[in-house]
Automatic annotation (TrEMBL):
Name by which UniProt lists this protein: DNA polymerase III subunit delta'
Catalysis performed (reactions): DNA(n) + a 2'-deoxyribonucleoside 5'-triphosphate = DNA(n+1) + diphosphate
Matches recorded under InterPro entries: DNA_pol3_clamp-load_cplx_C, DNA_pol_III_delta_C, DNA_Rep/Repair_Clamp_Loader, P-loop_NTPase
GO biological process terms, semicolon-separated: DNA-templated DNA replication
Gene Ontology MF terms: DNA binding; DNA-directed DNA polymerase activity
Length: 333
């Protein structure tokens, strides 16, 4: 298991609570980005399930630890959404709860981890609530979410919420540059971190999965369309679903242009490697139109995230032409 140093303090705080018998039986970790919550929950589960933990570490040699190492501990349950529906239904939760009421197979504790808790159906939540109100002895629930606003209030009220925030930029930078040898320029590492809301794991993925190169292609295309007036060339880029990452990158460029126009210093930009592009945008659009455009692009992003059965291409075409039209109007003033 790869450990992330910024989790140390949270890990120790949570374990100290369990060691002093103050640990909550239902813990909900909330993080906007991937900051290693799975690793954290797994490490806590390892400690709870280990027969001979040493201070805040599992022993790694007892039978329970060995079963966990091979991923087959009978008292550790991981529940994920069903592939076809992307929901966690009542039958899955009921089956899990039924096994909880039997004796633990191997260990003294039972652990249930629901990674995407927002995927629980209403019926599944109701069944879960009853168990959370009267949990079987030595049973611990762990939940993870990217957005706790999507979780029912009744379920939230039964859990202890623990926000996992991204580490300080200096810690993220240090980790990122140590782990990815190809990032030899601190500016690029800083830029990747800012594009990922400070999450070093996601910033690393940008380089590992080739997203960085794709982003550079997008920036090149933005430059091209501004120079040639063919704004619809951006449609294929922005229409790529993949969590609307291209649209998000595009919006960060607009955010930077607005900051730049307002005289904010370079070190506060997100796209630190794209100062030329940002300058070009500020030459073509005024502060009022940039601000209006930014709001409208943000609305579109939200719209794409909320609804699936919409004509994305049509909406993008309209937005891009509207953005282009704003150049003309800005130049006239
Ligand atoms: Zn052990």
């Amino acid at each position: 298991m790869r450990w992330y140093p910024w989790l140390d303090s949270t890990y120790n705080q949570i374990l100290n609570a369990y060691r002093q018998d103050r640990g909550h039986h239902a813990l909900l970790l909330n993080s906007k980005r991937n900051n290693g919550e799975n690793t954290l929950i797994y490490a806590i589960a390892r400690w709870l399930i280990c027969s001979h933990p040493d201070a805040n570490q599992c022993c790694n040699i007892c039978y329970d630890c060995r079963l966990m190492n091979v991923g087959h501990h009978p008292d550790y349950y991981e529940i994920s959404p069903e592939n076809n529906t992307q929901t966690i239904g009542v039958d899955t939760i009921r089956a899990c709860i039924n096994s909880l009421h039997k004796y633990a197979y191997q260990s003294k504790v039972k652990i249930i981890y629901i990674e995407y808790v927002e995927c629980l159906t209403d019926q599944a939540v109701n069944v879960l609530l009853k168990t959370l109100d009267e949990p079987p002895t030595n049973t611990y629930f762990f939940f993870k979410t990217r957005d706790y606003m999507r979780i029912s209030l009744t379920l939230l009220s039964r859990c202890m919420r623990w926000p996992i925030i991204s580490p300080k930029e200096s810690i993220g930078l240090q980790w990122l540059m140590k782990n990815r040898e190809e990032i030899n320029d601190i500016l690029l590492a800083q830029c990747a971190l800012r594009l990922c809301d400070g999450s070093p794991i996601e910033a690393e993925d940008m380089f590992k999965l080739g997203l960085w190169k794709q982003r550079l292609e997008l920036c090149k295309c933005i430059n091209y369309v501004i120079a040639n007036g063919d704004f619809l060339k951006l449609v294929p880029f922005l229409n790529i679903c993949k969590n609307d990452i291209y649209l998000y990158w595009f919006i960060t460029v607009l955010v930077d242009a607005l900051k730049w126009k307002q005289g904010i210093k370079k070190r506060f930009l997100i796209n630190l490697d794209q100062v030329d592009l940002i300058t070009v945008i500020t030459v073509h659009w005024g502060i009022v139109s940039l601000s209006r455009q930014l709001q409208q692009w943000l609305v579109l992003l939200r719209y794409f995230q909320e609804f699936t059965n919409i004509d994305r291409e049509l909406l993008l075409t309209y937005r891009l032409l509207n953005w282009q039209q704003d150049i003309v109007e800005s130049c006239l003033h």
